[in-house]
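Backbone-to-sequence.
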């Protein structure tokens, strides 16, 4: 399967599969973000999700993929460290501000930096039309954040700190997307890289959460936490794994931009499932984000 995927890289079929993977990752990531924010402490939520990664991935690394070589192991440890910093910035942002404010800021900042980084490191240059699409998408996402921000009632200081962490998290999204794209491209086998990445990055947040709660008991029910952990891990495999494979098959910048349509899917989830009001302005911004993604996809 890994060899077949590599054979599609750089082909029209590979580009189509990469687009499908990136869009699937967008839907999964919108659900993943909602699970982490949720009704529990975001540090605890992320810890049980990482524990879910361990449970799901352990049989894969034991029975289905070989152990990585020394070079791949070093690259994987670097990826785990970068994702740890990303997870910390995400948890900090969720601690301070609402999901509907934090999530769009993170997702709107990420593609701008990723496209620039892909140009420098992978020599993947966007056309002028595609940059217009990036401006529409990121602009729409950030305007959506401002729209949600105007409805926030929390203290300004907490909100300001939350936004700073969200911007830092958006930068880390660009860092891990670029690094992971490089790592999975030089890895001997894409699926081995994915499996060991999820396994090696599953230990840090459970340890951090235990340290944070060593003096305060965890009051959340075990069944709810277990469900959240396994569901989040499944969605994480689809989200992070999908976009990693997309960057292996096609351009990094295009995969990153399509993945950030997760903001639209997050809004649609809130609209149709959670019964949140959307309104004409938010609907317009959602349309602007979607149009930007289409322009990027068709303008290359």
């Amino acid at each position: 399967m890994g060899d077949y995927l590599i054979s599609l890289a750089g082909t029209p079929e590979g580009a189509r599969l990469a687009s499908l993977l990136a869009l699937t990752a967008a839907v999964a990531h919108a659900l993943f973000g909602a699970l982490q924010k949720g009704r529990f402490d975001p540090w605890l939520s992320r810890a049980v999700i990482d524990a879910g990664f361990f449970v799901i991935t352990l049989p894969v690394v034991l029975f289905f993929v070989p152990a990585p070589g020394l070079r791949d192991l070093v690259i994987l440890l670097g990826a785990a460290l970068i994702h740890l910093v990303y997870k910390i910035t995400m948890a900090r942002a969720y601690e301070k501000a609402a999901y509907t404010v934090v999530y769009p800021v993170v997702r709107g900042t990420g593609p701008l930096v990723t496209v620039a980084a892909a140009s420098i490191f992978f020599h993947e240059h966007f056309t002028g039309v595609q940059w217009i699409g990036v401006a529409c998408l990121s602009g729409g996402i950030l305007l959506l954040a401002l729209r949600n921000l105007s409805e926030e009632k929390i203290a300004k200081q907490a909100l300001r700190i939350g936004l700073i962490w969200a911007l830092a998290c958006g930068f880390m999204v660009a860092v891990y997307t670029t690094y992971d794209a490089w790592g999975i491209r030089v890895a001997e086998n894409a699926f081995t890289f994915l499996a060991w990445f999820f396994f090696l990055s599953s230990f840090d947040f459970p340890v951090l959460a235990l340290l944070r709660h060593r003096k305060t008991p965890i009051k959340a029910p075990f069944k709810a936490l277990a469900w959240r952990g396994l569901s989040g891990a499944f969605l994480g495999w689809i989200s992070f794994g999908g976009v990693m494979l997309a960057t292996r098959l096609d351009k990094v910048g295009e995969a990153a931009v399509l993945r950030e349509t997760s903001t639209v899917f997050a809004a649609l989830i809130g609209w149709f499932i959670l019964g949140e009001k959307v309104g004409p302005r938010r609907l317009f911004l959602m349309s602007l984000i979607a149009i930007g993604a289409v322009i990027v996809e068709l303008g290359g």
